[in-house]
Amino acid sequence: MKIDVNLGDRSYPIIIQNNLLQNLDEYLRGNVFVVTNTTVNKLYGKYLKKHAKKIIVIKDGEKYKNLATFEYISNQLLASKIERKDTIVALGGGVVGDITGYVASSVLRGVNFIQIPTTLLAQVDSSVGGKVAVNTKYGKNLLGAFYQPKCVLIDPNVLKTLPERQIKTGLAEVVKYAFIEKTACNTFDESFTFFDFLSTKDYKQNYENIIARSCQIKADVVSADEHESNLRAILNLGHTLCHALEKLTNFKITHGEGVSIGLKFIFDLSLKLGLIEKEYYENAIQLLNSLGLKTDIPRAFKADKIIELMKSDKKVVAGEINFVVPCGKYDVMRKVLQDELLIKEILP
Q1: Is the distance from CB of 152 to CB of 12 less than 8 angstroms?
Q2: In the annotation, is 63 catalytic?
Q3: Where are the domains of the chain?
Q4: What is the dotted CATH code of the domain comprising 164-346?
Q5: CA 348 to CA 344: how far, in whole Å?
Q6: Which among 62, 181, 226, 228 is annotated as catalytic?
Q7: 227 is catalytic
Q8: pLDDT tens digit string along 142-153?
Q9: Which CATH class is domain 2-161?
């Protein structure tokens, strides 16, 4: 299966194919440098070994998506005499993809970059669209760039080795697409929506279709707005609270857990603002619950601290929090919210 991200001379394909890791000859040519982490290298590094001039292994975890790891990867590449015509491959989840992409955008002022995502979250979201970054002590993804890969190679079979917690982390991003589908898609068919599909199908038997639909929605958005000047902001539904909670817990909650909590929060907020009907609200929360996703905000943190961190989000406008909020079935919009008391009513 092939999905195109249409960006003129920066266009690239997303290839979704079972057993793709065993059939990479068509895509990996010339000098290839692979960046992966300790866990993924043990599972899948063997498939890249014959293609790689060097495999660079970093520690596993969001806390290692930082400038120290960025410097380590860069030094390994430069010591190995990487050239501009060479290719860097990110083999792993969102952390590996984000930091490898940022290195690729920077080393020698830019070298070729390929994503091979190995988590559901990375396959449906972070590997597509060219957002690459590292975290700082001030917040998540505050240093980064827009740098598109040459291709994204997705093998759904790797999900068989993924822990259940990581599957649910990915499903949080999947369900986000169901909530933005009408706003996002060039061809929206209300007769059978992604929301309906997730509500009525056994998702564990349909990962390939779930990945494909998620990637198509994101490809439509990125093709229309590569640098998040307008439409692409809708992909941040649920993410403003998510990033604050990740920072507060020192990334002890996963990104997807933060997203699902953020989705429940933003639906609560939208209902209070009178932007959505109660029936749609209840159906949305039921879908989150049916997928087994976390929705409760941890009570260990004060509302003022959560709001303070949300105000450090990249999308803040004139010091005010810029939320993406549901405004109808499968429809969202951006809204700058100045009423902190209303936010506090929803926070624990």
Answers
A1: yes
A2: no
A3: 2-161, 164-346
A4: 1.20.1090.10
A5: 8
A6: 228
A7: no
A8: 899 999 999 999
A9: alpha beta
